[in-house]
Amino acid sequence: MCLVCDRIEMIKDGTNPYFVRELDTGYVVLGDHQHFHGYTLFLYKRHGDKTELFHLDMPEREAFLREMTVVAEAVSRAFHAEKMNYELLGMGDNHLHWHLFPRFGGDIGEYGNRGRGPVWWYPMEKMYAEDNRPTDAQLADMKLRLNAEMDKLL
Ligand SMILES: [Zn+2]
């Protein structure tokens, strides 16, 4: 089974607390762990053999990319990012999904090149530590802020 599909099923069942909004090509969800405050994912709707952006036909590719950049802009505004980081990976699950990280100076501590560098230079066990899970109240507030910014952009 695919973890991305699992999360999408939860959205459809109304049981995914991280769900923010449905767009034409995908679902916006907040990350389970929020070391990078505002970390958001954009999950492509369809699971299948299309595992690269260049597998999508051009109109679909453009729609998916356009919506992803709207989400990224909303995340940036909602959480006042200094810089957005974008990752489209998929070695774990063959299902297109974007990781959108708002970045702030000092957010990887002294890791990386004297505190500068990509998110994956921050230790995984710290990034996914249980105390980085948002509380229900924090989650509600983050969803409200992100949806408000998306309303302005859509
Ligand atoms: Zn899937």
Helical fraction equals 25-40%
Number of helices, counting only DSSP H or I runs of 4 residues or more: 4
* Helix-strand string: HEEEHEEHH
**Percent in strands:** 15-25%
What is the averaged pLDDT score?
A: 96
Largest sheet composition = 5 strands, antiparallel
CATH topology: HIT family, subunit A
Q: Which structural class should the secondary elements be placed in? A: alpha+beta
The whole-angstrom Rg is 15 Å
Word description of this protein:
It is a single chain. With about 150 residues, the chain is an alpha+beta fold. The chain is about 35% helix and about 20% strand. Helix 2 packs across helix 4. The protein is globular and about 40 Å long. The relative contact order is 0.19. The chain binds zinc ion (ZN). Zinc ion binds next to helix 1.
